[in-house]
Design a protein that fits this description.
about 425 residues; alpha/beta; Aspartate Aminotransferase, domain 1; Aspartate Aminotransferase, domain 2; 2 domains; four-stranded mixed β-sheet
Length: about 425
């Protein structure tokens, strides 16, 4: 039975949604063809839709659910907190407890400020960088996705020189420039002493399909930023607590001045945070800098929300010691190695990028070094692969680029089923 035949209940909901939600969805990414499936229940790595179909999930809440859906330790902690309040609007101990864990785990974290999303974290982090340095210009990486903040919402998609959205005021991005990933020479040309407030980069490019840094690249950026007085800002909303307990900065051994985190930090609840050097974060201190023109303003109604704090504490406690990372890294390695072996066996024009529990399949002969090369992939094959896997009850995003995550409840059986379905595609696809 085809996907369309198996998801008639979802189709009815999709038609209903179109009358109240633009395009019938709450996020463009979720508008999969021919229509989205609608989840009724999620447990571990299994999603059950309204028609009773069960999918193995490799999207796991946009990568946020490193412990899977509804992990017992998080659910129990949240259930215990709920009777004590869901939102205070005042200070409470939980926000200190989570911050202490972050400072203990992340190399760059000396101080923490919470937000409600990764977008907000990047907004406030780049504002802080401008306030601290007194400079307005910023440098980002082509293909880097840092949320919907106007000043960073440029050079995300090829050809990287057109507006990323209607309604974007050109003036909001005129002080932001971009260079390709894995290109130290381009970064060196763009960074001059006293010029840029910050260089913001995803240590592993998420939307680009988990493009990894070449040896010496992140180290070189650290040196360039030191030489030019530019703050190095790691966007670890995706990689924070994912590649290692201390994130990509621990995994690669490069410490930024400021980092933004989210996703895993909230244990399945909305959250974001900016963390970094005490000296830099003092610029937020309203007691030290009482004048509005002196300090970098930061805040928000749901910052430090007690439910998100509780779920985050339970999640980070589960990640201490590295046992979870050892397991998911092992499974991620099996997945990446298996996909490479199968693609090679069938001489398929596909390459695999894998780093710990993250893996991506690119329909091009060689792994991409940057987002320009990711864009130069076989989109038809990628879409066909996505539809094939969905018909085999395997869910991930996006149809244009298969990039996915392993989380703690995944098993070797799950990986084997993914590889078997992938092999069936490689064997039968004719282009």
């Amino acid at each position: 039975m085809s996907y369309k035949e198996r998801t008639k209940g979802s189709l009815r909901l999709y038609k209903r949604a179109q009358s109240v939600l633009p395009a019938g969805v709450s996020y463009q990414l979720r508008d999969i063809t021919p229509h989205p499936f609608y989840v009724r229940k999620a447990q571990g790595v299994k999603l059950t839709d309204v028609d009773g179909n069960v999918y193995t999930d490799y999207w796991v809440g946009h990568g946020a659910l490193i412990l899977g859906h509804s992990p017992k330790q998080v659910v129990d902690a949240v259930a215990k907190q709920l009777p004590n309040g869901t939102h205070y609007g005042f200070c409470h101990e939980l926000e200190i407890e989570l911050a202490e864990r972050v400072v203990d785990m992340m190399p760059s974290a000396e101080m923490v400020r919470y937000t409600s999303s990764g977008t907000e974290a990047n907004l406030y982090a780049t504002r802080l960088a401008r306030a601290y340095t007194g400079r307005m210009k910023m440098l980002k990486i082509e293909g880097g996705w840092h949320g919907g903040y106007d000043s960073l919402h440029m050079a995300v998609h090829a050809p990287f020189n057109v507006s990323e959205s209607a309604g974007l005021n050109p003036k909001t991005v005129e002080d932001t420039s971009a260079v390709p990933f894995n290109d130290l020479d381009a970064a060196e040309k763009a960074l001059k002493p006293g010029d840029k407030a910050c260089l913001i980069i995803e240590p592993v490019m998420g939307a680009g399909g988990f493009i990894t840094p070449e040896p010496g690249y992140l180290e070189g950026l650290r040196e360039l930023c030191d030489e030019t007085g530019t703050l190095l800002l790691f966007d670890e909303v995706v990689t924070g607590f994912r590649l290692a307990p201390g994130g990509a900065q621990e995994y690669y051994g490069v410490t930024p001045d400021v980092s933004t985190i989210g996703k895993i930090l909230g244990g399945g609840f909305p959250i974001g945070a900016l963390v970094g050097r005490r000296e830099v974060f003092e610029k937020i201190n309203h007691k030290k800098y009482p004048g509005m023109q002196e300090r970098s303003a930061q805040g928000g109604t749901f910052t430090g929300n007690p439910i998100s704090m509780t779920a985050g504490i339970a999640t980070l406690d589960a990640l201490k010691g590295g046992k979870v990372h050892k397991k998911i890294g092992m499974l991620g390695g099996k997945m990446s190695e298996g996909l490479r072996e199968i693609a090679g066996r069938y001489s398929f024009q596909a390459s695999v990028i894998g780093v710990e529990s993250c893996f991506a399949l690119h329909f091009r002969p060689k792994p991409p070094r940057n987002a320009r090369e990711t864009a130069d992939s076989d989109g038809r094959a990628a879409k066909a692969f996505y539809e094939h896997m969905l018909n085999n009850n395997i869910a991930f995003m996006t149809p244009s680029t298969c990039h996915a995550w392993i989380c703690e409840p995944h098993t070797e059986k799950d990986v084997g089923e993914f590889l078997a379905a992938a092999e069936a595609f490689f064997k039968s696809y004719k282009g």
